[in-house]
Amino acid sequence: MKILTPTLVRRLVWVLVIVALVAGGIYALTRPKPVAVVLKKVEKGDVVASVVNTRAGTVEACQRTKLSPILGGRIEYLGVKEGDKVKKGQLLMKLWNDDQKAQQVLAEAQRFTSTQRVTEICTVAANAGREAERQSSLRSKGFISDAREDTAKTEAQARRAACETARAEVVGAQARVAVTKAEQGRTSLYAPFDGTIAKITGELGEFSTPSPPGILTPPAIDLIDESCLYVKAPMDEVDAPKIKVGMAVRISLDALPKQSFAGTVKRVAPYVFALEKQARTVDIEVSFSEKPASGLLVGYSADVEILLATHSNVVRIPTSSLIEGSKVMLLNEGTLVERAVKTGLANWEFTEIVEGLNAGDSIVISLEREGVKVGATAKAVEK
Q1: How many CB atoms lie within 10 A of CB 108?
Q2: Three-state SS for 100?
Q3: What is the domain count for the chain?
């Protein structure tokens, strides 16, 4: 048996130290590095279940009309310009109608003539009536024959008939006057309500074309009532059964970022709108609980979030931190682990946790990072 000398022992120790260092270096180089994950403490707050529109909605006016004259013609009078405020009944536009005015003058002259004829004919009829009465008196005394009395009565009846005919002609003449006035009305546009002129098509002296049904002709005047506005938005048909009139909503406008406005559902369309290559939708109308202080224009694009239910002061986590809808990931002594949870009310931002977590617990929210999986070594970092 060989005796280990001190020199040999020292050599062996050095060999073991070198082997240990090499093995440690190899392990350090080959072992997986901890994955950097972001943690978030579970908190309490409100969770609101809601649905949103599938496509952008639009701010609409409660009253809006696109006016066009019934007849075509040259614009003779244009009493407004775009942006003007107008009152109900105000004359906005009139086409050339001198020919119709001439027809009215003629009809009024004929009415006057008919009225004068009534005076003449009915005066004669009254005199014939009195003459028939005198002839009857004379016949009763035997001074004249029966034939003379009959002739006087027949003359009186004929005169009365002529008087009634003349009066009927006056009525006809008045009707002709009314017709000419109505014809002139077909060339004039009046404001049907108080509002603002949004758009005018045509200038003074240009020809204005009527807009018959089924033909896309620009209206002569677009009039809107800005005092009453609402939002019309399409909702997915799947969400339609959940929506009821009177539900609270949040309205956001692209033109007014970082703001939201309270509103109420005032109408749900009674039918599904089906358009080729687009999802089937149901239109809803939402009124503002309070009109925004800053300018709100008809035509603004708007998004509507309908609030279906609210749970207040409940344990909640970001919805994006859920795994398969019922699990969360925790960091336990440097290792990532899963925990099953029971969820309640949810929206795209937060999900209520009924069981499985308490306020103050920390969960992993950086699930999208590479290497974040159950069993992986991890360390917490700032965002």
Answers
A1: 16
A2: helix
A3: 4
Rounded distance between C-alpha atoms, residue 283 and residue 269, angstroms: 5
Please state, in angstroms and rounded to a whole number, the distance separating the CA atoms of residues 247 and 264. 6
Do both 82 and 210 map to the same domain? yes
Tokens of 45: 């707050």
d(CA 288, CA 269): 18
The answer as to whether 316 is a domain residue is yes
Cα→Cα distances 340→214, 320, 321, Å: 61, 15, 13
What are the distances in angstroms from CA 323 to CA 93, 340, 368? 66, 9, 11
Same domain, 82 and 192: yes
Same domain? 114 vs 178: yes
The residue among 261 and 211 whose pLDDT is bigger is: 261
pTM greater than 0.70 (yes/no):
no
Q: What are phi and psi of 244, to 5 degrees?
A: -130, 150
Structural domain boundaries, residue 294: 52-63+227-310
Could you write out the DSSP letters of every residue in 296-361? Answer: --TT-EEEEEEEEEEEEEEEEEEGGG-BTTTEEEEEETTEEEEEE-EEEEE-SSEEEEEES--TT-
Give me the pLDDT at residue 128, please: 84
Tokens at 292, concatenated? 């925004």
